[in-house]
């Protein structure tokens, strides 16, 4: 039986990775790794071990659920042990020799890995899963995205900030620079000299790599919102050909990893509470942008659970493909 280590097993994404492995009945033995302070904790009957240089001996695959700096520290140990790593950090996503994979879109890229396969950023995964079928149908020149990202994207500290502030606790902010309760913060990550944040660049850079579209134009505004879980995204698609809403609905009904939620007259549309704790991306509010005289612009609204499909589920789906190829 293949052995899988989850590095960063005690965080929200690491715990979700274990849950996804269990849900999918993957035929693997799981080893939980985390920092020394988590050593001995028990998660779903498994005892957490301290992550050390020897932790990866005898391990076949690693699911990485750590921040960049921690990942860069243990990655050489995993590679030395001959492991194949599916990494959720952003450390290696844009490396030329590291495939960046959303299985519904570019699973074939997995075959070109050199020991590391990168999991894209959560908001990138949710946008591309929701729009891939539309890109295939109408062609895509430019994508303009405004994200509304849940506090749990910032981990347990983000959740704590919202919970504390809603309860009126007078405690220091842990994750965000300003109060998030009853507020919006139009900043996720540091800004560069153009006034663009790190999170916003991810949508363009990662989208181009996953779709193999080096010329794709993407403009993104990332906003933190007082929602516990699930990211929402308002997306404008400037297409190559004239768009048709009925056809868009048809192709989305067939799209992998997508649920069409589009009956606005009956108040049916994607909402983060509905996508939370399930793996599909919901797509709705599909309409032509009537300001485009050529009729080639489509507007959609997507929601997806950023801990599941935006991180853990996507990584476990990549692991499933690796296991299939190893059979
Ligand atoms: C966030 N996408 O939402 C980033 C990292 N998960 O904070």
From TrEMBL:
InterPro entries per the UniProt record, alphabetical: Asp-semialdehyde_DH_CS, Asp_semialdehyde_DH, Asp_semialdehyde_DH_beta, NAD(P)-bd_dom_sf, Semialdehyde_DH_NAD-bd, Semialdhyde_DH_dimer_dom
Keywords per UniProt: Amino-acid biosynthesis, Diaminopimelate biosynthesis, Lysine biosynthesis, Methionine biosynthesis, NADP, Oxidoreductase, Threonine biosynthesis
Lineage: superkingdom: Bacteria
Binding positions (substrate): 149, 224
Pathway: Amino-acid biosynthesis; L-methionine biosynthesis via de novo pathway; L-homoserine from L-aspartate: step 2/3; Amino-acid biosynthesis; L-lysine biosynthesis via DAP pathway; (S)-tetrahydrodipicolinate from L-aspartate: step 2/4; Amino-acid biosynthesis; L-threonine biosynthesis; L-threonine from L-aspartate: step 2/5
Positions of the catalytic residues: 122 (acyl-thioester intermediate), 231 (proton acceptor)
The Semialdehyde dehydrogenase NAD-binding domain, residue ranges: 3-113
Pfam families, per database record: Semialdhyde_dh (PF01118), Semialdhyde_dhC (PF02774)
Catalysed reactions listed for this entry: L-aspartate 4-semialdehyde + phosphate + NADP(+) = 4-phospho-L-aspartate + NADPH + H(+)
Entry GO MF terms: aspartate-semialdehyde dehydrogenase activity; NAD binding; NADP binding; protein dimerization activity
Gene3D superfamilies with a match to the protein in the record: Dihydrodipicolinate Reductase, domain 2, NAD(P)-binding Rossmann-like Domain
SUPFAM superfamilies in the cross-refs: Glyceraldehyde-3-phosphate dehydrogenase-like, C-terminal domain, NAD(P)-binding Rossmann-fold domains
Similarity section: Belongs to the aspartate-semialdehyde dehydrogenase family.
The protein's role, per its UniProt record: Catalyzes the NADPH-dependent formation of L-aspartate-semialdehyde (L-ASA) by the reductive dephosphorylation of L-aspartyl-4-phosphate.
Self-association state and partner proteins as the record states: Homodimer.
HAMAP family from the UniProt entry: ASADH (MF_02121)
Protein name: Aspartate-semialdehyde dehydrogenase
Source organism of this protein record: Faecalibaculum rodentium
């Amino acid at each position: 039986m293949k052995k899988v280590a989850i590095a960063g097993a005690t965080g929200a994404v690491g715990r979700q990775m274990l849950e996804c492995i269990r849900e999918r009945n993957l035929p693997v033995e799981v080893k939980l790794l985390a920092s020394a302070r988590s050593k001995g904790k028990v998660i779903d009957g498994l005892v957490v071990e301290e992550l050390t240089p020897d932790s990866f001996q005898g391990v076949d695959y690693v699911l990485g659920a750590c921040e960049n700096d921690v990942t860069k520290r243990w990655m050489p140990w995993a590679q030395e042990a001959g492991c194949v790593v599916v990494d959720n950090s952003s450390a290696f996503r844009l490396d030329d020799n590291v495939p960046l994979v959303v299985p519904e879109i570019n699973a074939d890229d997995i075959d070109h890995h050199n020991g590391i396969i990168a999991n894209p950023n959560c908001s990138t995964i949710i946008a591309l899963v929701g729009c891939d079928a539309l890109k295939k149908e109408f062609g895509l020149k430019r994508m303009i995205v405004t994200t509304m990202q849940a506090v749990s994207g910032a981990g347990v500290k983000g959740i704590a900030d919202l919970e504390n502030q809603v309860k009126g606790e007078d405690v220091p902010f842990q994750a965000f620079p300003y109060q998030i309760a009853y507020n919006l913060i139009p900043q996720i990550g540091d800004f560069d000299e153009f006034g663009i944040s790190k999170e916003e660049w991810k949508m363009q850079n990662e989208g181009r790599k996953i779709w193999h579209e080096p010329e794709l134009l993407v403009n993104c505004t990332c906003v933190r919102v007082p929602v516990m879980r699930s990211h929402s995204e308002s997306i404008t698609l400037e297409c190559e050909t004239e768009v048709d809403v009925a056809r868009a609905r048809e192709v989305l009904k067939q799209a992998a990893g997508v649920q069409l939620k589009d009956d606005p007259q009956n108040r049916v549309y994607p909402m983060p509470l509905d996508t939370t704790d399930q793996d599909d991306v919901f797509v709705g509010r599909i309409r032509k942008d009537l300001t485009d005289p050529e009729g080639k612009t489509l507007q959609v609204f997507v929601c997806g659970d950023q801990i599941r499909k935006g991180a853990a589920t996507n990584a476990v789906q990549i692991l499933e493909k690796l296991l299939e190829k190893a059979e």
